[in-house]
Amino acid sequence: MQSLQATPRYGFASLWFSYRISETVHTMWAAEYAKLYRDDGLLGGHVIMLGVDPLSISAAIEALHAYPGGLQVGGGIKSENSLSYIEEGASHVIVTSYVFNNGQMDLERLKELSRVVGKQRLVLDLSCRKREGEYVIVTDRWQKFSDVHLDQKLLDFLAQYADEFLVHGVDVEGKKLGIDEELVALLGKYSPTPVTYAGGVTIMDDLENIKVAGMGRVDVTVGSALNIFGGNLSYKDVVAWHSQQDHLAKAS
């Protein structure tokens, strides 16, 4: 689940879940995860709809109802439907392909979305892969390279329209080979607004590595590596680490 605050926090752990609803998955599951995060006091979890079918939308809404104000929702978000998810209980909406469309950044769509839903409720997903030595934003489930490079200039510009950034290091995502420290360092150095990194977290040391590489300014999501999603990383251990970082931040 993601835990992003109004100002950069120090080494926060955040846990997220995404799901595709099919005939083998009951919609109650999403709401049960939401209740778990709610009971553990974890804010900002990601509800990612991998389809726009009625069952996926219904599952997302059930999760939002189970934890009002505690979850962020993404997948198929656009200006026309963004506000409806806020009204259903999402704290933020997460957007990628709608803004980075056909390889380009659609500034008019970005401005309209920020106006409709409010900058304070918009998270831009800037997930990227490396190409020719530079990080490039990818869209459409990370299959398509855009023409937009992730750098200081872009981060400064987009911070005018969004409350937070979410960045998956796609080159290491799901490979259990560790994090993309170079990307984390870039985000820690240049992001002017709260930013969360995802990708490659496999062991507890990866959380500390993000804290160091990001200079304490980059939050982290943990997903498929968690034992509650079939991985080997203890959910309870990550929550305990998260709580420890929270206490350290408040004491500093």
UniProtKB/TrEMBL annotation:
Keyword tags:
Amino-acid biosynthesis, Chloroplast, Histidine biosynthesis, Isomerase, Plastid
Q: Does the keyword Cell division apply?
A: no
Show the catalytic activity: 1-(5-phospho-beta-D-ribosyl)-5-[(5-phospho-beta-D-ribosylamino)methylideneamino]imidazole-4-carboxamide = 5-[(5-phospho-1-deoxy-D-ribulos-1-ylimino)methylamino]-1-(5-phospho-beta-D-ribosyl)imidazole-4-carboxamide
Q: Name one GO cellular component term.
A: chloroplast
Q: Which GO terms describe its molecular function?
A: 1-(5-phosphoribosyl)-5-[(5-phosphoribosylamino)methylideneamino]imidazole-4-carboxamide isomerase activity
Query: Entry's InterPro entries?
Result: Aldolase_TIM, His6/HISN3, His_biosynth, Isoase_HisA-like, RibuloseP-bd_barrel
Annotated localization: Plastid, Chloroplast
Protein's GO biological process? L-histidine biosynthetic process
Pathway terms, separated by semicolons: Amino-acid biosynthesis; L-histidine biosynthesis; L-histidine from 5-phospho-alpha-D-ribose 1-diphosphate: step 4/9
For this protein, the Enzyme Commission number is: 5.3.1.16
Q: Which domain of life is it from?
A: Eukaryota
Q: Does the keyword Amino-acid biosynthesis apply?
A: yes
Group of enzyme by EC: isomerase
Spell out the family assignment given in the record's similarity comment. Answer: Belongs to the HisA/HisF family.
Please identify the protein, giving its name as recorded: 1-(5-phosphoribosyl)-5-[(5-phosphoribosylamino)methylideneamino] imidazole-4-carboxamide isomerase HISN3, chloroplastic
Species source reads: Nicotiana tabacum
Q: Which lineage?
A: Eukaryota, Viridiplantae, Streptophyta, Embryophyta, Tracheophyta
